[in-house]
From TrEMBL:
Gene3D superfamilies: 3.30.300.30, N-terminal domain of ligase-like (3.40.50.12780). One of its GO terms (biological process) is lipid metabolic process. Residues 544-617 form the AMP-binding enzyme C-terminal domain. It comes from Dictyobacter vulcani. Keywords: ATP-binding, Ligase, Nucleotide-binding. GO terms for molecular function: acetoacetate-CoA ligase activity; ATP binding. This is Acetoacetyl-CoA synthetase. Residues 43-97 form the Acetyl-coenzyme A synthetase N-terminal domain. Pfam families: ACAS_N (PF16177), AMP-binding (PF00501), AMP-binding_C (PF13193). Belongs to the ATP-dependent AMP-binding enzyme family. InterPro entries: Acac_CoA_synth (IPR005914), ACAS_N (IPR032387), AMP-bd_C (IPR025110), AMP-bd_C_sf (IPR045851), AMP-binding_CS (IPR020845), AMP-dep_synth/lig_dom (IPR000873), ANL_N_sf (IPR042099). Residues 102-475 form the AMP-dependent synthetase/ligase domain.
């Protein structure tokens, strides 16, 4: 596959001072002093980290002074995937490591929204609220292993509720309130929650959205709920009428209590995230206290280079794993910055204004937001004081070279740009940035420490300077412990290990360069990944094909080589039905309401039939490959289709669009 990505000369090179002061340099010095290990550069460090897994992760345990009430008796049980068990015997608590950084000389959080000016939340206030809420959860009967769910925006109360949940050993799971009722119930019903936190409503793009009707519906759809905590956000005193076992947020914070931390095994579930495949319900991914703790300390300290007092921001909602990653910033003694609202309201300069007033150190965003700023012609570097900003992070989809250049030309030419790629599946990055390495436009700087990321061909052979499947050949501590309600691990194995047994196949196309950097070409499977929010096509089909006029449908998401994301929906209509503006509007409205505004298609087109395999599966991936520019013979084998004539439409469609 030809690529416009990759340039011969670096866009940015770190100074000697930057390299000297980098956290990863301090870690390498520690390895020399404490372990007698010397590495010439970061690439050599990466090779050691994947060749000597146990030594590497044990070194992080010591380097970060992990606090455990019981020590571990083995770093890694085996290298088998799935099934690897990390730090057996250890007992600890993720939230305890957050609060050991509590201090009076800097705030814990800074928060701003469309409705609220910049606000500080002190460590004292956060500690007090988490302590009170932890006690309230225990009084509700919440025990270690119980599920606590949240239907909340990116607000301080969400951080408080999560940390209280983690402190008592319960399992957290959240959805953003812009998720429609179907998306929420398909996630939460699987895990049978005991407590729900929910806002009465939220504001986005200057418009208010009442969520009380959704709370009433969730109460019906989630029969295991024993308590619903309503957080006033649109109104000061929202009505709880008709909400059984409902209490207001203020009530669960009323009784002060000392904050204590339940000691749990290293692999005790911390939270459940959701990553959708192409069939069935969203996969409920369970990740553990210890694995996430070590992974986020590693990634945020050694890759993102967060230092005490830094102000760390990533634009996200609670429905994206980047929210969980953002919370991890508290592990590094950094201040985390929360923003709730539209990045384009009242205009695209909102987040840059937020960067100025919060004195932001690291600005995390998506490639699509950078592309929007480019198209809008804004000049953040001229309009705002961004002198505190050291780095820009981008994820969600590949950042094209033009995005790198725009950042340097229109924000600041000495900014470090860290384009990263990972996944909900590990709640971190497989391919990361590093402040000690040069930046090449269009490239991700390096593979994450401890992550043995390779590019494989169809035969399972590693590739260099060729596009292949992104695979991981050794286990990571933050890989899923299991999927909820998957007792025999069938869905888990099918999701990652069916293509290359014993080796994790992630579902991205990747090219690893000779210098150790990488280029990501988007999803190799059919998961819809828009604005970093992954949604299975099956979820969209449930809504679209639930309409009486629609007999069948096919949706694909395509990353464009120069930025942007194309999401066409193809529908088969009942005889006599026409795709007029009214039907198009209704389809989009249903998807906006029941799935999310981010997954409304760019185009809706009529087809005569959906191409399928001999076993009846829709051909999403081959259609996506065609739209990404692959020739017909490399996209699909027509012999494997039950209706090969149906694929001819897409061949013609792709030739017109490419």
């Amino acid at each position: 596959m030809d690529t416009p990505f990759g340039e011969e000369q670096p866009l940015w090179t770190p100074s000697e001072t930057v390299i000297r002061d980098a956290n990863i340099s301090q870690y390498m010095h520690w390895l020399t002093q404490e372990r007698g290990l010397h590495f010439e550069d970061r690439e050599a460090l990466w090779r050691w980290s994947v060749e000597k897994l146990e030594d590497f992760w044990a070194s992080l345990w010591s380097y970060f002074s992990i606090k455990a009430s019981q020590p571990y008796n083995a770093v890694l049980s085996s290298h088998t995937m799935p099934g690897a068990s990390w730090f057996s015997g250890a007992r600890l608590n993720y939230a305890e490591h957050i609060f050991r950084n509590a201090t009076s000389d800097r705030p814990a959080l800074l928060f701003r929204s469309e409705r609220q000016a910049l606000t500080e939340i002190s460590w004292q206030e956060l500690t007090k609220n988490v302590g009170a809420l932890s006690q309230s959860l225990r009084a509700m009967g919440v025990q270690p292993g119980d599920r606590v769910v949240a239907y909340v925006p990116n607000i301080p109360q969400a951080i408080t509720a999560f940390l209280a949940c983690a402190s008592v050993g319960a399992i957290w799971s959240s959805c953003s309130p812009d998720f429609g009722i179907s998306s929420v119930t398909e996630r939460f019903q699987q895990i049978e929650p005991k407590v729900l936190f929910a806002v009465d409503g939220y504001q986005y793009g200057g418009k208010s959205f009442d969520r009380l009707p959704v709370i009433h519906e969730l109460q019906k759809q989630l029969p295991t709920l024993q308590k619903i905590v309503v957080i006033p956000y649109l109104k000061t005193e929202p009505s709880l009428e008709g909400i059984g076992h409902g209490v207001l947020w203020s009530e669960v914070l009323r009784e002060p209590a000392e904050l204590t931390f339940e000691q749990v095994p290293f692999d005790h579930p911390l939270w459940i995230l959701y990553s959708s495949g192409t069939t069935g319900l969203p996969k409920a991914i369970v990740q553990g206290h210890g694995g996430i703790l070590l992974e986020h300390l590693k990634a945020l300290t050694l890759d993102v280079d967060l230092k005490p007092g830094d102000r760390f921001f990533w634009f996200t909602t609670t429905g994206w794993m980047m929210w969980n990653f953002l919370v991890g910033g508290l592990l590094t003694k950094s201040v985390i910055l929360l923003y709730d609202g539209s990045p384009g309201y009242p205009n695209l300069e909102t987040l840059w204004q937020f960067a100025q007033e919060s004195q932001m150190s690291f600005f995390g965003t998506s490639a699509s937001y950078i592309a929007s700023c480019m198209k809008a012609g804004i000049e953040p570097g001229q309009s705002y004081d961004l002198s505190h900003l050291r780095g820009i992070g981008s994820t969600g989809s590949p950042l094209p070279p033009e995005g790198f250049h725009w950042i340097h030309e229109h924000i600041r030419e000495d900014l470090w740009v860290a384009s990263v790629s990972g996944g909900t599946d590990i709640c971190s990055a497989f391919v990361a940035g590093s402040i000690v390495l040069p930046v090449y436009a269009g490239e991700l700087q390096c593979r994450s420490l401890g992550a043995n990321v390779q590019s494989f061909d169809d035969a399972g052979q590693p590739l260099i300077e060729e596009v292949g499947e992104l695979v991981v050949t050794e286990p990571l501590p933050s890989m899923p412990l299991f999927f909820w309600n998957d007792p025999d691990q069938q869905r888990y194995r099918e999701s990652y290990f069916a293509t290359y047994p014993g080796i994790w196949r992630h579902g991205d196309w990747i090219r690893i360069t000779e210098r150790g950097s990488a280029v990501i070409y988007g999803r190799s499977d059919s998961t819809i990944n828009r604005m970093g929010i992954r949604m299975g096509s099956s979820e969209i089909y449930r809504i679209v094909e639930g309409l009486p006029e629609v007999l069948d449908s096919l949706i694909v998401g395509v990353e464009r080589p120069h930025g942007g994301y194309y999401l066409p929906l193809f529908v088969v209509l009942r005889p006599g039905v026409e795709l007029d503006d009214s039907l198009k509007a209704r389809i989009k409205s249903e998807l906006r309401t029941h799935i999310s505004p981010h997954h409304v298609p760019d185009e809706i087109l009529v087809i005569s039939e959906v191409p399928r395999t001999l076993s009846g599966k829709k051909l999403e991936v081959p259609v996506k490959k065609l739209l990404m520019g692959l020739p017909m013979e490399k996209a699909v084998s027509l012999d494997a289709l039950s209706n090969p004539q149906a694929f001819r439409y897409f061949q013609e469609f792709a030739s017109q669009r490419n």
